[in-house]
Structures are given as C-alpha cells and as structure tokens.
Amino acid sequence: MSESMNVLDWLQYWYASQCDGDWEHEWGVTIGTLDNPGWTVKISLEETDLADRVYPRQQVTRGEHDWVMAWTSEKTFHIACGPRNLTEALTLFRAWAAEGAP
To answer: What residues are paired with 61 via a beta bridge?
Structure first.
C-alpha cells in the first residue's frame, strides 16, 4: 500500500483485507455521528493482527469543535472526534496499525 494513499482509501483496503468470508459477518467498521457534534468510529480488531495491541487513550482538544479522542478496549479501536476531525482521527488508526508492519 502506498503511503500517499488517502486515509479513506487506506481504510477501505484494510477492511477488505480482513474480509475472509467469516470476519465481516461478525466484525467490521462502524462510523456514526455524535450530537455535540462530532463523529464516532469503532473498528473491530477481533481476529486481526491488531487484536492484542493496545492504543492508550489519547485526547487532543484544540477547541469546542476541534478535538480527537482515540483508544482501544475490548479488541476495538475507538474514535470520537469533532465534526471536522474524522480524517485526522482515522489517520491515527492508520499510523498505529502500520507500526511494526512489514
């Protein structure tokens, strides 16, 4: 995968690479909205190479609508972020997932 690939294309590639006929029936990626406003993302790590890795809770707050939180728990990568921070937040997942990758 090219490092210049945009993060949404990368996420689609990552998701497709997990699909094996079984994984996608139980696990997956969920993107929703928050009412404060913002985004929420849950990326299942169950049965992936990332399942046992930890991403400690991190939070960056630059303003009322400019913030990002990310963490792992229960084999899920969680994101909550402001309404214009989705790309930034998904980039955190991408960087973390790529750590130690061949």
So the answer is: 67
Q: pTM of the full predicted structure?
A: 0.91
Model confidence at 101: pLDDT above 90 = no
Complete edge-to-edge strand list for the sheet that includes strand 76-81: 29-34, 38-44, 76-81, 66-73, 58-63
Asked if 72 and 54 count as a contact pair (C-beta separation under 8 A), the reply is yes
Q: Helix, strand, or coil here: 79?
A: strand
Residue 72 lies in a domain: yes
Mean pLDDT, range 61-67, rounded to an integer: 97
Which residue's entry shows tokens 């996420």? 11
Strand residues in the chain grouped as ranges (E): 29-34, 38-44, 58-63, 66-73, 76-81
Residue 16 belongs to a domain: no
